[in-house]
């Protein structure tokens, strides 16, 4: 699997290795970025730095910025994103400390690092960079709908934050293990940090969303696969627009539906029920046919992290029989996942 930069954000070169900043959060759900980097770019992470009030850990060596720099770190990544995506005032002294220790700062939040006066001043004083990953490239085109060469897979979901990135990375790795030429295409801040390039789709102006997805996955050799990280959900009352633009612009030949069993309500939208798998498949195929009439669903990826192995296996086997499609947990792997990979490749 390749995770190289591409025309959409070729200028992005992130300084590695990373020291992961976990701030003072107490809910692990806000640490998706730190966990994603630990799990998929562990060779780029030298340790973590958290404040005294923080209880969430990525399980890495606890280092101060100076200690991280001494161990080879060249940037500190803000690995958490609390509600609203703001940089908490309580973090600022620690972020300044990192700049003083010789580290650049990397953030994937909507708030720009340079908009925090103390950080702008410290970065200028110590000749360090403030790198905002959630900034789309300039000059994005409006989508054309033109059919591109090569093959594409897009992960879609019943909701947000349930495994679309992990599924795409797992599938891209599995394709490569089978000798298939494949690229992981990152569409969110964590994926971009893992891959070193990508387009933050939720920061793109709506008119250019489909065009950004086209740039993300350009013409390729007939047997080449782009495995595209999905965003949001067509059923989310706030984020469906991002999902639709990505679906139309990606023109996927294959979709894999991602779901977390047991989740009953859309995240951040109380009263909105999680859609059924059948409805999710149906709507994604209906809308996806607009730009690729041959689109198909290859199967379902379950996030069974809250279940034991026997319970997870029994549920996935039953759901696979019910749906007539492979159902697997990409992180657990095994025969069920290999069936899903088989069906993706067709």
In the CATH hierarchy, what is the class of the largest domain? Alpha Beta
The share of residues in helices is 25-40%
- Sequence of secondary-structure elements: EHEHEHEHEEHEHHEHEHEHEH
Supply the number of helical segments.
Answer: 11
Q: Which descriptor suits the 3D outline?
A: globular
Side-by-side strand order of the widest sheet: 7-8-6-9-10-11
User: From the helix content, strand content and strand pairing, which structural class follows?
Assistant: alpha/beta
Describe this structure in words.
This is NAD-dependent epimerase/dehydratase family protein. Residues 142-336 form the D-glutamate N-acetyltransferase-like C-terminal domain. Residues 64-136 form the D-glutamate N-acetyltransferase-like N-terminal domain. It comes from Sphingosinicella microcystinivorans. It holds the Pfam family DUF1611. With 346 residues, the protein is of the alpha/beta class. It folds into two domains: 9-132, Rossmann fold (3-Layer(aba) Sandwich); 151-345, Rossmann fold, CATH 3.40.50. It contains eleven helices and eleven strands. The strands form two sheets. It has a six-stranded parallel β-sheet with strand order 7-8-6-9-10-11, sandwiched between helices. The protein has a five-stranded parallel β-sheet with strand order 2-1-3-4-5, with helices on both faces. Helix 4 (117-126) links the parallel strand 4 and strand 5. Helix 3 runs parallel beside helix 4. The longest helix has 15 residues, at 309-323.
List keywords for this structure.
single chain; 346 residues; alpha/beta; Rossmann fold; six-stranded parallel sheet; five-stranded parallel sheet; globular; disordered N terminus; DgcN-like; DgcN-like_N
